[in-house]
Amino acid sequence: MMHDSPKRAVRCVRLAIEDAPALSSLESRCFALPWTEQAFAEAFAGKTFHAFGIRETASPLSPRELAGYIAVYHTPDEVEILNIAVREDRRRHGYGRLLMATALQDAKETGILQGVLEVRISNAPAIHLYESFGFRQAGKRRGYYQDTGEDALIYTLDMGQTRTNP
What we know:
The protein is an alpha+beta fold. It has helices at about 20-30, 35-45, 95-110, 125-130, and strands spanning about 5, 10-15, 50-55, 70-75, 80-85, 115-120, 135-140, 150-160. Helices cover about 25% and strands about 30% of the residues. The chain has an 8-stranded mixed β-sheet with strand order 1-2-3-4-5-6-8-7, sandwiched between helices. α3 links the parallel β5 (about 80-85) and β6. The chain is globular.
């Protein structure tokens, strides 16, 4: 699956185990407790893990480097959004929106009916993005994040009402 962004020369592509180093590199730029290259490789070895990445076609980034990515697990009736990350210098260009739209559309095409994710209570930009796709708060996990003890909000989505391009 490939989507082109109208604002920049970018491609949103399905990622594979060969992309584990680039995923790990981006994770370490974006998260305090990043997934390792080995963790990504192990996830790709399973049948339920899927990831999509943003590659810029005319960019100083190397051809294998990612500007952003989204990782999800598929079960027969649910897609769990695991992580979504965009390089700090590429934020506010619609990359997160493109990644989310791609992952949700892919899930819908496989017949998945529900979506779920966790988000830090302080991450207002992410919450805004998720709500724009129709995710609704369904609960809270107190002290969920190991690095800060911050609470996580649980969001769910009825895939029959998904706005894949809000």
